[in-house]
Every structure is written in C-alpha cells, then in structure tokens.
Amino acid sequence: MKILIVDDIHEVLLEKLDLSNILYDYQPDIKREEAEQLIPQYEGLIIRSKFQVDQKFIDLAPQLQLIGRAGAGMDNIDEEYATAKGITLISANEGNRDAVGEHMIGMLLNLMNNLNRGDSEIRQGEWLREENRGFELMGRTVALIGYGNNGQAMAKKLSGFGVKILAYDKYKTGFSDEYATEASMEEIVKQADVLSFHIPLTRETKGLVDDEYLFHFRKPLFFLMGARGGIVNIPSVLKYLDNGKILGAAFDVLPVEKFPALSHQDWYLNLISRDNVLLSPHVAGWTFESYYKLSAILADKITETLNKN
Predict the structure, then answer these.
(1) Domain boundaries defined on the chain
(2) If residue 123 lies in a helix (H) or strand (E), which one and from where to where?
(3) CA distance 21 to 45
(4) What's the number of CA atoms in the CB half-sphere (13 Å) around residue 191?
(5) Does this chain's domain 2-95+288-308 share its CATH topology with 135-275?
(6) Apex CA 283: angle with CA 275 and CA 293, to 5°?
(7) How far is CA 85 from the centre of its chain?
C-alpha cells in the first residue's frame, strides 16, 4: 500500500510508517485540486481537516482502501459512501481526549469565576469585587452528552471537583462507572447545572441544540460546546443567555469558523459582545502533546490494520 498524506502531521507518524515499511508521500502543503490529480495513484489517504473527503473525491480514487484521520471524528469524510465502497476508516479519537477535557474544564472555571471579565476590568483601572463574585463547582451536577473517549476523559478529570456527573449516550447502555452515572435525558434536563457536549457531528446531531432542546432544562446552567460547532444553533444559546436559563457559555467550536466568514454571521457581533461568553479558536484538542499522540495513535492503528490483511 502507498499512502498520500495531505496534511501537517507529527513526524512520529512518518517514523512509524517507515519502521513498518509502509510507503507514503508526505505533502502537507498540497491543495485539494492537486490532491485530486494524485489520489488515483494511491491506496491510502491520511488527512486532518484540510478539505472534505466527499463522494467526488472518493470517486477519483478507484484504488483507495484506507482513509486515516489524525484527529477525533470523521466529520470531514463521507463515512457512509466510503464504507459502501469498502474503504476502511481509521481515526485517532484517543489522541486528544485529555487535551479537550482539560481545556473545557478550564473554560468552565473561567466562566464560573468571571476571570476574563475581572482581568479586563483591572487592566482598565477598575477593582470590582462584589460584581465578580463567582460560583463554586463543588456540589453541582455536570451533565455530559456523549460518553465516548472525550466524555469519559472529561468525567475522570472532573471527579476530583466533588461534582455529581451524569452521562447520556444514545448509542450506549450499561456504561456507568466510577466517574459517571448513566442517565436518561429526562434526568439530565431536571438536574444539570453544567451541560457539556461530547458527540460527533452527524446528520442526526446537526442543529441538535436549538430552542426546543434548551427549553426543557429546568435549572440555570453553564453551557460548554467543545464537540463540533454544527451541533448548536447559536441564536438559541443567545436567547437563553438573555432569559437567564444559560448563565454562561463557552465555545471552542462554532458552526462557522475562521475569518472573514465568521464575522459575516448574523449572530457574531451579539455573541462577542457578552462578558459571560468565552471563545477559543478550535484548539481544545490541539496541544503540543495531542499533536504527537494523534499521529502516533493513527500510525499504530494503520500498521495494525494492514498487518491483519
């Protein structure tokens, strides 16, 4: 098998492929149009998020047997079509789960304690203690939507904060463990003080979090979105920030990312005007450590898959 690598990846992946005598061409600066010209020559493809591996691209690759993604999830790959064509799909979901968990907990603690607002005020010559009184996390109920790699890592990291952790996963049952208790959505909407998402973007989850979804929650809560931006309807979150049902919201991902496209969204100025909204540029899973782990894990999985065949 010969693999075309079209994205920047850690050199450990190349080293591991070399050790396994797997042939590859590493072209991290390649454009999609160039990749379309080359892909017919390859049996394998490795990508992160450079472009959509859609039906058109897959049809240009009659020899393609394997697609590896150095990331969590396969949302930039047409999984259904690729699978129908007999292509093996491999991702490295384990590689950034710790990074995402740490990042989202950091965003939560920031929101609950008004850290960004307090910092900004001090820089402007204001010393406002009462106005920045925070909330403690201990004793609250954290609800995790999705209990795969990222959800489990989040639960484990939260376990030292003295919180009750409920987890809902539509596709799993009997998964309660020492860190989280399996719960129904009925239990989630009644008890959640913090709502955190750990699900992939699929046809089913696209636009899942809308007015109707958020309406059912009984208690004011902190909202964390570190999964995929397409899951959430931003105007719905803004609506519930306005009425106090959402106390604060943290987004590492948005439905539209990067500029100038982001600044053209109707909701953008409203979102950034709020001091109880915290934003980061889709970096929760992108630490120096996860950069290594994503590539190392993917290389090991590819080698194991090819050795089986």
Answers:
(1) 2-95+288-308, 135-275
(2) helix 115-123
(3) 16
(4) 19
(5) yes
(6) 150
(7) 27
CA distance linking residue 63 with residue 197, whole number of Å: 37
What's the whole-number average pLDDT of the chain? 96
Element (H, E) at 126: none
CA distance 60 to 82: 12
Q: Which of 98, 218, 219 is nearest to 156 (CA)?
A: 98
The domain made up of 135-275 is a member of CATH 3.40.50.720: yes
Place of tokens 């017919």: 40
Structure tokens at 253: 């991902």
Q: Which residue has the tokens 């970096």?
A: 283
Indicate the residue type of 26: Y
Average pLDDT over residues 234-259: 97
Average of per-residue pLDDT across 237-254: 98
pLDDT tens sequence across 145-157: 999 999 999 999 9
Residue where the block lists tokens 């492929």: 17
**Residue 210: pLDDT band with limits 50, 70, 90:** very high
| Ordered DSSP codes for 246-307 | EEEEEES--SS-STTTGGGSTTHHHHHT-TTEEE--S-TT--HHHHHHHHHHHHHHHHHHHH
Q: What is the mean pLDDT of residues 2-19?
A: 97
Contact between 279 and 272 (Cβ < 8 Å): yes
The sheet carrying 2-5 orders its strands as 23-26, 2-5, 44-47, 66-69, 88-91
| Predicted TM-score of the model (pTM) | 0.93
| Range 2-95+288-308 classified under CATH 3.40.50.720 | yes
C-alpha distances (whole Å) from 12 to each of 73, 92, 121, 206, 306 are 21, 14, 44, 34, 18
